[in-house]
Amino acid sequence: MPSRLNPYISFDGTAREAMEFYRSVFGGTLVVNTFGEYGVEDPEQGKRVMHAMLETDGGYTIMAADTMPGMPHNPGDSVSVSLSGDDTEELRGYWAKLAEGAQVATPLEKQVWGDEFGACTDRFGVSWMVNIAGAAAG
């Protein structure tokens, strides 16, 4: 298997909901394992997500987990997930879904460098950037 780079996102009890949302955005196969499946007996802690992985037909992989109670959780402090490419329809579709209920910092529109770009923080506190490549200068 070749090396790959993908985000691993921490949530504070909303990992399953967030990952199901991302599956609705990108499609694909979602596998979710809870702490309870691995021996945590406390019912509240046991239902939290120990590991979730979404693998999409487009080649994206997103992983996530819930933090356990008492662990620090500071969403969006230092990471943004970036989607880029030249498939305008696909990327605009992702943007439209991600931006629902999100805090939009930069609307998806043509920028000075010639690409369409938008930035938002989704309803789970995750920062997203979408860049649609413009026509190549010739």
Kindly describe this structure.
The protein has two domains: 8-66, 2,3-Dihydroxybiphenyl 1,2-Dioxygenase, domain 1, CATH 3.10.180.10; 80-132, 2,3-Dihydroxybiphenyl 1,2-Dioxygenase, domain 1, CATH 3.10.180. Helix content is 20%, strand content 36%. The protein contains three helices and eight strands. The strands form two sheets. A four-stranded mixed sheet has the order 1-4-3-2, with helices on one face. A four-stranded mixed sheet has the order 5-8-7-6, covered by helices on one side. Helix 1 packs antiparallel against helix 3 (88-99). The chain is elongated and about 55 Å long. It starts with 7 loop residues before the first strand and ends in a 6-residue tail after the last strand.
User: How far is the first residue's CA from the last residue's CA?
Assistant: 37 Å
Instruction: Give the number of domains.
Output: 2
Largest sheet: 4 strands, mixed
Level-1 CATH class name of the largest domain: Alpha Beta
What average pLDDT do the residues reach? 90
Q: Work out the helix count.
A: 3
> What helical percentage do the residues reach?
10-25%
Structural class based on helices, strands and sheet pairing: alpha/beta
Q: Radius of gyration, Cα only, in angstroms?
A: 17 Å
Unreliable runs: none
Order of helices and strands: EHEHEEEHEEE
Give me the side-by-side strand order of the main sheet: 1-4-3-2
Shape: elongated
CATH topology of the largest domain: 2,3-Dihydroxybiphenyl 1,2-Dioxygenase, domain 1
Tell me how many strands there are. 8
Strand content: 35-45%
CATH architecture title of the largest domain: Roll
CATH homologous superfamily assignment of the largest domain = 2,3-Dihydroxybiphenyl 1,2-Dioxygenase, domain 1
